[in-house]
């Protein structure tokens, strides 16, 4: 059900990610002030963009779940949020390394993007305790969807608030990627971004397939146990 | 939609009036937090950004108590089943609960903010007078909307007391930023340049977004 097109997608992901790594290390020029460490940007920024989009997508899937009542949309939303949290952890770690290398501190509170990402990440971490504190599967799906929608609306608001609260002293990542970057860097960035999107979609489909299979297995086991009981009685 | 909401609100206010559970606890808690900040920061009086931060963090922490208790009476006495059986729109339940939380917060602030002025604030509250109540009211609207949603989300989970603060406080970060930034120039010894419009705009945007989101999704909570 979820595994359609998984193999070609995985192959495409492997090809694009390999190409992206080659571009990062052999094609993209060294940054004039930051040197080699700037290359972490090609991992960090695509990961952040994909994680944020994954969270918002989780909210959109959740809307579809509440409107249709179809539990498969809840599963899609859950897996998207789950993968985005894993990517989010990667974003915080790589961001911290980058901050240490270029500004000398592991954590910089005046970097709006970093701080708003941390707040969003903390909020989404509550998804697990909320989801697994509800036993009834139907209610669990419904409540998780409500959370996913509220949190999805929170993401852009939070970024606006944190960005407004800071003095504009640091270059903003999005304008940096669009405006002043030389062509080779921009090409490399776009290829890594596509690679990261493909990786996310592949992992998402894989996880959906695995979760779906294990749910079906559980159901079949329960059916078999029930039938045995019926035979024994 | 309004009439049932008014009835539920009246019930909640009456219940609060008779039991005196949430509002006195929230007020007492805010004063305790002031004392904690006094010793934690080792400062006799605060002003400017420090004062705004202490005031708003205290109010948000007090709000956590109110949100945790918001559905407590219904849950403990089983009144929730009666509410859900009644042919009442969920939206009116949300409006009633948010309004109750809003009124609780206003009642707490009527005591806690003057107490803050008395205990910790250096410059005195007089200079902040026309604007501060407006910021407080706008902030309360946002806290009430998010709080009612979070209370309903957590009401049916096992680890309720755990979920509420974990969920509420990160959701309120944009509100904290705009409220604290808007309050900060009002609490300085010399009134400095103000940027009130930008922060009130952001605060209003936050309120509108979360009232709409809460009304939209509240129908799916507290079913069965």
Number of distinct beta strands of chain A: 0
Number of domains of chain B: 1
What Rg of chain B, in angstroms, do the CA atoms define? Answer: 18 Å
Q: What is the CATH C-level name of chain A?
A: Mainly Alpha
Q: Which parts of chain A are unreliable, with pLDDT below 50 for 5 consecutive residues or more?
A: 174-178
Strand percentage of chain A: under 5%
Supply the number of structural domains of chain A.
1
Written overview of the protein:
The complex is a heterodimer of chains A (233) and B (224). By secondary structure, chain A is mostly helical. Chain A contains eight helices and no strands. About 2% of the residues of chain A have low confidence. Chain B has 224 residues and is an all-alpha fold. Chain B has one domain. The two termini of chain B are 20 Å apart. The chains are: A mainly alpha (233), B mainly alpha (224). At the A-B interface, helix 4 and helix 6 of A face helix 7, helix 8, helix 9 and helix 10 of B.
């Amino acid at each position: 059900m979820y595994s359609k097109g998984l193999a070609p997608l995985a192959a495409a992901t492997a090809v694009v990610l390999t190409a992206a790594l080659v571009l990062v290390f052999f094609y993209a020029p060294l940054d004039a002030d930051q040197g080699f460490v700037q290359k972490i940007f090609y991992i960090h920024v695509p990961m952040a963009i994909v994680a944020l989009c994954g969270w918002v997508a989780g909210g959109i899937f959740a809307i579809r779940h509440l409107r249709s009542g179809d539990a498969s949309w809840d599963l899609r939303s859950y897996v998207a949020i789950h993968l985005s949290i894993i990517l989010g952890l990667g974003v915080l770690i790589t961001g911290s390394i980058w901050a240490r290398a270029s500004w000398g501190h592991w954590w910089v509170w005046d970097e709006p993007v970093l701080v708003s990402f941390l707040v969003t990440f903390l909020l989404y971490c509550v998804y697990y305790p909320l989801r697994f504190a509800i036993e009834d599967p139907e209610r669990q799906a419904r409540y998780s969807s409500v959370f996913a929608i509220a949190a999805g609306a929170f993401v852009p608001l939070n970024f606006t608030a944190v960005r407004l609260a800071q003095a504009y002293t640091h270059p903003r990542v999005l304008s940096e990627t669009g405006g002043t970057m030389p062509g080779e860097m921009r090409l490399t960035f776009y290829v890594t971004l596509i690679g990261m999107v493909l990786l996310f979609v592949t992992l998402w489909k894989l996880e959906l397939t695995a979760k779906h299979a294990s749910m079906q297995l559980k159901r079949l086991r329960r059916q078999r146990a029930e039938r045995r009981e019926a035979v024994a009685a | 939609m309004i009439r049932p909401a008014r009835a539920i609100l009246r019930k909640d206010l009456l219940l609060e009036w008779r039991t005196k559970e949430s509002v006195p606890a929230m007020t007492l808690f805010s004063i305790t937090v002031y004392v904690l900040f006094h010793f934690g920061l080792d400062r006799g009086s605060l002003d400017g950004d420090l004062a705004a931060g202490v005031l708003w963090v205290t109010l948000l922490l007090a709000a956590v108590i109110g949100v945790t208790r918001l559905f407590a009476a219904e849950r403990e006495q089983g009144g929730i089943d009666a509410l859900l059986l009644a042919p009442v729109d969920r939206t009116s339940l949300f409006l009633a609960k948010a309004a109750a939380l809003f009124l609780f917060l206003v009642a707490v602030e009527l005591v806690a903010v003057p107490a803050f002025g008395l205990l910790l604030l250096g410059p005195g509250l007089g200079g902040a007078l026309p604007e501060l109540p407006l910021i407080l009211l706008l902030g309360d609207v946002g806290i009430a909307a998010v709080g009612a949603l979070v209370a309903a989300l957590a009401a049916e989970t096992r680890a309720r007391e755990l979920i509420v603060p974990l969920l509420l406080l990160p959701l309120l970060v944009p509100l904290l930023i705009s409220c604290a930034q808007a309050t900060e120039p009002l609490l300085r010894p010399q009134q400095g340049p103000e940027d009130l419009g930008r922060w009130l705009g952001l605060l209003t945007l936050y309120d509108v977004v979360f009232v709409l989101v809460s009304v939209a999704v509240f129908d799916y909570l507290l079913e069965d």
